[in-house]
UniProtKB/TrEMBL annotation:
This is 3-hydroxyisobutyrate dehydrogenase. It comes from Cellulomonas cellasea DSM 20118. Residues 2-92 form the Pyrroline-5-carboxylate reductase catalytic N-terminal domain. InterPro entries: NAD(P)-bd_dom_sf, P5C_Rdtase_cat_N. Pfam families: F420_oxidored. SUPFAM superfamilies: NAD(P)-binding Rossmann-fold domains.
Amino acid sequence: MRIGIIGAGNIGTILARRLARVCHDVSIANSRAPETVPAAALSTGARAVWAADATAGADVVIVSVNLGQIPTVADLVAKAPSGAVVLDTSNYFPHRDGVIEGLGAGQNESAWVQAQYRRPLVKVWNTITTASFADKATPVGAPGRIALPVAADDDAQREVGMELVEQTGFDAFDAGVIADSWRQQPGTPAYTTDLTAEQLPAALAAADAARAARRRDLMMEILLERAEPDGTLPGPDFQLASTRLLF
């Protein structure tokens, strides 16, 4: 497939590398010039392009930017080919994204994002940390393989998202429609807890919309309180233990 990625941060870079490796035609853009895209994103054959060109002719568009940046890329996404499947990896963190009206108290983040894009989306790759995404990909059937929930209103689009999740080294779990995607938002038991396909259904079922935002904010308070003087956050083992305890 022709895949255009908007966002060349940690997750976008890993996606570009892995999806190009399995022979997709991948282009990736950041908010600046193509030459500023990290070399790591291009190491397996992806091409750096201008953001305005990332969606041109794409079969799949992946948006991997902070939720607060979505209004700045929404028009690009809306102009993607009508048949393109749009996948979004974003999560809402008020300390980073600012206060957004209609979000922050358990509301459905993906419904808000979908309204910005003015087209359907697939919610995916939002429940895993950069460290786990980089280091814990495993082959199909490997013991303890991490599962990632995939939500979308269109069954065929959800299937595309699930296929790509499998190709990036994780089990894909059908998490239903966008109206239920709040169950995979920050502060819920499915968020960054590295669960298997056997464990994930119970975690999604146990999500509590009324408590998720407070747990998300508490997680950030703990991480920031334990940060080094230079701002470096605690390592991945601490983060995983914290989220499993809190969520």
